[in-house]
């Protein structure tokens, strides 16, 4: 297809696709800065821009919710990455009896999302087995369960397998132990994969809903996505506050995605195509 | 020197954090769910064995049957819709130019946004008055106004559309990766033999994409079965139960009405469906590969 008509058709088609998929989110961006937005519609062409919605949102503790979200995603992601690389090291670089079983168990966890386990999980969170700690009503309860994620472990394992064994053997002959090899030989070579599991872990934790819903007992523990529903149902809160809060809940994931798009696409294909 | 005992211990030490967390927050809850599903769970009073009564309720109770039907409908509709639309998007947006890359990035954004944000945005877009935004668009083509989420006969379809809107761009990216793997030489040979674009698509690209279809169907169906957040935020099962799915019903039974045993049985049915579906698609893939050889 070429020629001016085909090009115009093509351009229009792209414009429609962008409008349909990105348009609503762009409208959210603009409307959040519009004075007294209409509850029935979003706008793309504001007459005047203002920060009023954000100052009103801050009065409604939106910054606290945002801080909670950042704590959960920050600590959760750090732990998740550490747990994943540690497990992947064992699975990719060692051979040991029971390895197949461990793989099977990790695959099984991917069929056991928080939703399906919600009811018993709420009981376990209130009384963690063996240590008998109550995690309900504490951000720790939203962080620890996401610290181990099957997808992340499998992607990392796949990547670590590719690292030539000679490098490891050379270090071992030099007298390095497992911890040294892990830290100064294997890990530096895994940096591209760290980007992949980092961006996937971020979006996964940021999008958590069921787990915070089970753990949070009052508003002081709400993450921002969780708080949106409460803000919407509060008669005293105008739609402007809801839009400002929604935008704040949208931006971090979009910015992280735009910054790490290449790693994201790589994870999408490695995780999905190879199954 | 390192003793043999210590050497056997090393991998388990590296695996320990993951296995401990999985045990506490996946396998113990799973075992509890199995146990609870056979009991009348009464906190502080002690549980009472009720055999299969909870399961009988899941398969006979009208609310559960309706929820199962809505769940299946939603899973099939969202999976199919996302795959078809995603494939369409991939075929339109395949290419290496910078413009295409920008369009793809923009189209992909719904997948990145947290579901909670997507739900709030769509509640406004679906505003049921004639001046609502989607109603405005429908008005241009002489349709509507619709009540969308607020009417029993449109609510489930409205939720489904949101799911497709968020799911299709993801499928598009997977298809693009799959299309990139299609052998160019094969494509060009077909073109040289006079095959038009549609025949090339049908005979060259689709067979190469078969494993991609299998993966997407499995992933989407599993995600579709456990759908919770979008329903919880868009309609919470309403109006009048018209969008109640298994997970929202289980959540209400277990955490609001304290019928833990029945809720656990419902979860087990959902889990069984997920496992069967996964194994079925895996088996089909293996059979497929065997036949190809």
List keywords for this structure.
heterodimer; A: 275 residues; mainly alpha; MetI-like fold; 15 helices; 71% helix; 0% strand; B: 293 residues; two-stranded antiparallel sheet; 2 strands; globular
What's the end-to-end separation of chain A, in Å? 35 Å
Low-confidence stretches of chain A: none
Mean pLDDT of chain A: 89
Mean pLDDT of chain B: 86
Biggest β-sheet description of chain A: none
Beta-strand content estimate of chain B: under 5%
Tell me the overall shape of chain A. globular
Kindly describe this structure:
The complex is a heterodimer of chains A (275) and B (293). Chain A has 275 residues and is an all-alpha fold. Helix content of chain A is 71%, strand content 0%. Chain A has a single domain (48-273), classed as MetI-like fold (Orthogonal Bundle). Chain A has helices spanning 4-21, 23-31, 52-59, 62-93, 99-109, 114-126, 140-143, 150-161, 165-173, 178-189, 191-206, 210-215, 224-233, 239-259, 261-273. The mean pLDDT of chain A is 89. Chain B is mostly helical. Chain B starts with a helix and ends with a helix. The model of chain B has no long low-confidence stretch (mean pLDDT 86). At the A-B interface, helix 1, helix 2, helix 4, helix 5 and helix 6 of A face helix 1, helix 4, helix 5, helix 7 and helix 9 of B.
List strands and helices in order, with pairings.
The complex is a heterodimer of chains A (275) and B (293).
Chain A lengths: L3 H18 L1 H9 L20 H8 L2 H32 L5 H11 L4 H13 L13 H4 L6 H12 L3 H9 L4 H12 L1 H16 L3 H6 L8 H10 L5 H21 L1 H13 L2
Chain B lengths: L3 H34 L1 E2 L7 E2 L3 H8 L1 H31 L5 H15 L2 H11 L7 H8 L11 H29 L3 H9 L4 H29 L3 H6 L11 H11 L3 H33 L1
Antiparallel strand pairs in B: 1-2
Helix pairs in contact in B: 1-12, 2-12, 3-7, 3-9, 4-7, 7-9, 8-9, 9-12, 11-12
Précis, in short:
With 275 residues, chain A is mainly alpha-helical.
